[in-house]
Amino acid sequence: MLFVHGPVPAAAVRPAKWPVYLGYCRLAAARGLAAATADLDYVDYTDVASVVAQLAAELEDVRAHPLVDGERVALWAFSGGGLLVNRWLEVPPAWLRCVALSYPVLQPPPDFVSTPIVLTRVGRERADIQETVDRLLASSTPVERIDVPGGRHAFDFLDDSDESRAAVRQALDSVSGHLF
């Protein structure tokens, strides 16, 4: 499983070392899954194509790792990381078992996607971001939806609540089910 962050300005601590992604990796490992967080040069939305190429290279590195079953992989994108996954939704490789999206910013999705999608949707999302999620939900693509009615963008590290923890566990359970 590869966790994909959104844009991050230059920072001393890279997303792979952020507590939220370390937590997701630990939760995945507790379920017997190999997990990593991408470390992308993704500072804004101006050069998404270049970042997609970086993500593709990191994904191949993860698939080639000796502790990873490269034929059973999930991508899990957060926030603006959702803008990077369309390539794998449009032409899903056989090894891609699911794509998880948490409070994503999305490009218009393909009309139909055969790869399972697990969407964690927050109830207090910004209108412009919610519009991109609504377009996905209006498409003919089947989506497993996990709603976090009281959640806001980045709820999983901003809101330490029973609702937040339950949503993260439910999403991880679903993604795990697609990998086993």
Mean pLDDT: 94
Taken together, the total number of domains comes to 1
**So what's the overall shape?**
globular
CATH class: Alpha Beta
Strand order of the largest sheet: 2-1-3-4-5-6
- Low-pLDDT ranges: none
Give the full name of the CATH homologous superfamily. Answer: Alpha/Beta hydrolase fold, catalytic domain
In the CATH hierarchy, what is the architecture at level 2? 3-Layer(aba) Sandwich
Number of helices: 6
- Report the sheet-strand fraction: 15-25%
Looking at CATH, which topology would you report?
Answer: Rossmann fold
The SSE string, one letter per element, is: EHEHEHEEHEHH
- The gyration radius over C-alpha positions equals 15 Å
Helix/strand structural class:
alpha/beta
Distance between the termini: 12 Å
Task: Explain the overall architecture.
This protein has 180 residues and is α/β, with parallel strands linked by helices. Helix 1 links the parallel strand 1 (2-4) and strand 2. The protein contains 6 helices and 6 strands. The two termini are 12 Å apart. The protein has a 6-stranded parallel sheet with strand order 2-1-3-4-5-6, with helices on both faces. The chain has helices at 19-30, 48-64, 86-90, 127-138, 155-158, 162-179, and strands at residues 2-4, 36-37, 73-78, 96-102, 117-124, 143-152. It has one domain: 3-Layer(aba) Sandwich (Rossmann fold), CATH 3.40.50.1820.
Gist of the model:
By secondary structure, the protein is of the alpha/beta class. The chain has 6 helices and 6 strands, in the order βαβαβαββαβαα.
Which tags fit this structure?
180 residues, alpha/beta, Rossmann fold, six-stranded parallel β-sheet, 6 helices, globular
